Each structure stands twice: as C-alpha cells, then as structure tokens.
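Hi U.,

Before I forget, here's the chain from the pilot set. I'm dumping it here mostly so it's searchable later in email.
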Amino acid sequence: MGLVTSTGGAWGSSGLRRILALSYLLVWAWQEHQLASALLGKDPARQVVFLIDEVEVHLHPSWQRRIVRSLLKVLSELNRSTSV
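Structure:
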C-alpha cells in the first residue's frame, strides 16, 4: 500500500520497479544458496561478490546513483555476518 501512496501510481516509476526487481532477485538467490547449503550439509558462504557492469544506463541519472547503494543495503540486510 505504501508503494501506491508514495509513488502516486500502482506500480511506481520504471526505475523503482527495476530496483525492486533486482532486489527481489538478490533475495531469491540468497535464499536458494541457503537452501542448497543446508541440503549439502555445508556452511553458507560468508562473502558475496556482486558484479555490476554499466549500472542500469537506461535509468535516470538520479536512479543510477541510488541503485548500487540500495542493492548493497539489500545484500547487507540478508545476513549481517556476511561481508559484501
């Protein structure tokens, strides 16, 4: 509901949608890693390597400046003991 009221539309801007999609992908990948680690009986990785090539050049410059910071925040919130 906050997305609707804060953006003025049901889906927000394309930049917001893109950042949310990337964040979702990161959370999903991390959860899959956790599950695979548990199934294999191994400890999950303590480091995450996140490579970005051409930071979403189609986005408005202000969104380009925000996206890396936002994605790093998502990664750091997934597991506080993991270094990003």
